[in-house]
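Predict structure. Chain length: 238.
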Amino acid sequence: MRRKRHKRKLNHIVIVTSNSTDVGMRQFLLKPGLLWTVILTLCIIIGVLIGYFLYEAKIWQTVSARNDEQLRQIAELDEQKRALETEVETLQQHVQILSDTVNEKVQSEAELTAQIENQSMPTEFPLTGSASMEESLDGENPICIFQASEGTTVIAAASGVVTAVNDDEEYGHSVVIDHGNGYVTIYRNQGETNIKTGDSVVQGTTLYIITNDNVKFGYQMMLDGEYINPVDMLAING
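Prediction complete.
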């Protein structure tokens, strides 16, 4: 029969020494299982550390890339902001110009409206030259009767539309002008006129020319269908 051999157990001795002569050597007996455990543990620790540093480096790389992207986006946003500010400033300038233009047009329109309204008020003296005047009544209606010299012209006291050109028993002819604001003026004279019904006239338009045969001129005025004294309006004009 074969003799059974006993498996030899190997032990490892760790010797710790120093280069100093005063210190002796120390020996540590390590069993094989414990040594491999220590080696395995160290390998695991080293592997974990290596993995940690690699992972941390990757994290920092990702963070750095993210920061760079954020900085790029911020730079783009700043550039867009400056572009928008420039555009807004330009638009504000355009708005200011438009506002000034609108204000000028509104002011011009207001001045033009006031001018038109002023020209539609029958305050102008109805003759281009001097004349004597007396106030009288045409029935119950007030009338101003002028005696003018030859060459004087009878003119429209304000802008308006001719609503009638009639024959007049006493004065020969009459021209009626509606000024569109409630005022109506009536001009009576024996002279011929080139004005006809429907014509638009402005303040100062010639209606008659005074000659030796028609020095007498009658002037009447109505407001909202009622006769008023023309002198009152002439007094407003000064």
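Summary: DSSP finds two helices and twelve strands in the chain.
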